[in-house]
Design brief:
The complex is a heterodimer of chains A (about 240) and B (about 250). With about 240 residues, chain A is mostly helical. Chain A is about 85% helix and about 0% strand. Chain A is built from 7 helices and no strands. In chain A, helix 2 runs antiparallel to helix 3 (about 80-115). Chain B is globular, with a radius of gyration of 18 Å. Chain B has a 6-stranded mixed beta sheet with strand order 6-7-8-3-9-10, sandwiched between helices. Chain B has helices at about 45-50, 80-90, 105-115, 120-135, 135-140, 155-165, 185-195, 210-215, 235-240, 245-250, and strands spanning about 5-15, 20-30, 35-40, 60-70, 75, 90, 170-175, 200-205, 220-225, 225-230. The chains are: A mainly alpha (about 240), B alpha/beta (about 250). The complex binds adenosine-5'-triphosphate (ATP) and magnesium ion. The site of magnesium ion (MG) has 4 residues of chain B, from helix 1.
Chain lengths: ~240, ~250
């Protein structure tokens, strides 16, 4: 069903719209966090890390506001069908967004601790991986705003690009570790491995949001059991060799 | 759920004089399930309900074509006795309508009419059993011979249900049975419906989406005399397939 008519009770529309607004604002803030993260990775600017940390409480606040708004709408309006799906899904989306925000922060902190990334090629690779995540983030917000399941599907498909890029950068880093990294730098490279792994996980959460958009519109649950962290095992296996 | 077909409505058209009220309705109602009919005012819910026990016979200008089969038999053939049919298919109305008689006589009315009891004792036990099934006996056992109209609205409605049960129906039709009741009386009727469906097939018309969702196994949505969509209640309410159904149940401008 593609049409979204207004409710007879106008304030019901306002309540639904409010949830949508809050979710969009929260998503936009997460987008901003990734943009700041890009700058951190690129320049290691301490001020930018501060900005990321400053934004963190606002994400928590959005999360709380969304939960409040959803509880209110369920209590007072007893939404059903698409309205119920839109309300409940907002809770799951905000959990994904909260996690994405967390990831941006933890990567920034890890990278900051390194001061500089020792290898420009690796740095550029990581930035490219991050750019893919950012594009996905932008597209998923777009799909959410327009309730467009085609766009959501593209986001789901494009997650593969993140996975591939992740595997690629992963191999590059592991090769470095095996070949020419001095013992002292080992920790640095391990941190980079965790950073790219976190970016790969960020892609999964964006993918979740795309699935949730599909659920809102169609009522069909397409969330597949997420591929378990095969790549964590891969990380260990690569290093042990 | 037994999955056994109890009522089958086929290509049913109903007219009040020139005006067509139902258009080519096809609907299956399963035995020992609760089926709710929902839809905007004037869409034909009561008309459809009344086709199931030939109450429309009582309206001169009302004509119909198509079939209503109960247990595989067409209820509108000349050899079918409407009075007998109505004892098999009981009806409860929106406004409780006890007869201006005692509680006892209200319930005994049907069994007496159909000569179902051979003795006073047997009639007594029928009355008590029906009142008990309707969840009313304990509240009225000490005043069975007082007027039924002296009961509260919720009690009157349960009295009407007891009256319907007294003739051992197989099907119970309810037309907005709770619309005049407070939430507690409503909850009691809903609990009763839950109880009754073990033995009876129930068709209920309701304007409360929440009530339809709570009490019924299947739901049929009607719009301007047409049956738009029917299916398991859970599916209709979580993911309706038709835009009109979605607009109606979610309170959108249709
Ligand atoms: N006795 C009658 N004579 C003429 N027209 C009638 C009669 N009963 C119902 N109608 C018409 O048939 C249509 C369906 O009416 P019906 O009572 O079945 O609707 P409904 O869905 O039960 O509505 P409500 O929810 O308001 O009870 C309406 O247009 C109504 O005006
Ligand atoms: Mg009616």
């Amino acid at each position: 069903m593609s049409e979204y008519k207004d409710h007879i009770v106008k304030s019901f529309d306002d309540d639904i719209e409010n949830i949508k607004q809050l979710t969009t604002q929260m998503a936009t803030l997460v987008e901003e966090q990734f943009k700041l993260l890009y700058h951190v990775i690129d320049t290691a600017s301490p001020a930018t890390i501060e900005d990321i940390l400053d934004n963190e409480p606002r994400l928590d606040q959005y999360d709380a506001e969304i939960r409040d708004a959803v509880i209110t709408i369920i209590t007072l309006r007893a939404p059903i069908a698409i309205d119920l799906r839109a309300s409940l899904t907002a809770l799951r989306i905000s959990t994904d967004l909260e996690r994405l925000g967390d990831y941006a922060k933890s990567i920034a902190m890890r990278v900051a601790a390194l001061e500089t990334i020792p290898d420009t090629n690796i740095k550029n690779d990581i930035l490219r991986l991050l750019t893919l995540v950012q594009t996905q983030m932008k597209d998923v917000i777009d799909a959410y705003l327009s309730k467009d399941i085609k766009k959501a599907e593209i986001v789901r498909k494009n997650d593969l690009m993140i996975d591939e890029k992740y595997n690629l950068v992963y191999d590059v880093i592991v090769d470095q570790i095996k070949d020419k990294v001095p013992k002292l730098k080992l920790l640095t490279y391990t941190k980079l491995l965790f950073a790219i792994k976190t970016l790969e996980r960020a892609g999964d959460h964006i993918c979740n949001i795309a699935e949730e958009i599909h659920f809102i519109v169609t009522g069909e649950d397409i969330s597949t059991t997420k591929k378990p962290s095969q790549s964590i095992e891969k990380s260990l296996e690569g290093i042990n060799k | 759920m037994s999955e056994k077909l109890k009522i089958s409505i086929k290509n049913l058209n109903v007219f009040y004089a020139e005006k067509q009220a139902l258009f080519d309705i096809n609907l299956n109602i399963m035995e020992r399930e609760v089926t709710s009919l929902i839809g905007p005012s004037g869409c034909g819910k009561s008309t459809l309900l009344k086709c199931l026990n030939r109450m429309n016979d009582l309206i001169d200008i009302c004509t119909m074509d198509g079939q209503v089969m109960i247990d595989g038999a067409n209820i509108n053939t000349p050899d079918q006795d409407p009075v007998l049919l109505r004892s098999k298919v009981g009806m409860v109305f929106q406004k409780p309508n006890p007869f201006p008689k005692s509680i006892y006589d209200n319930v005994a009315y049907g069994p007496r009419l159909h000569g179902m009891a051979q003795s006073k004792d047997e009639l007594d036990s029928m009355v008590i059993k029906s009142l008990t099934r309707a969840g009313l006996y304990d509240e009225v056992k000490n005043r069975l011979f007082e007027a039924g109209t002296g009961l509260s609205g919720g009690q009157q409605q349960r009295l009407c249900i007891a009256r319907a049960l007294a003739v051992n129906p197989e099907i119970i039709l309810m037309d907005e049975p709770c619309s005049a009741l407070d939430p507690i009386a409503t909850a009691k009727i809903e609990e009763l419906i839950e109880e009754l469906k073990r033995k009876y097939t129930i068709v209920i018309v309701t304007h409360s989406m929440q009530q339809a969702a709570r009490v019924s196994d299947r739901t049929a949505y009607m719009h301007m005399g047409e049956l738009i969509e029917s299916g398991f209640t859970k599916n209709i309410f979580s993911n309706p397939q038709h835009q009109k159904t979605q607009d109606y149940i979610t309170g959108r401008i249709g």
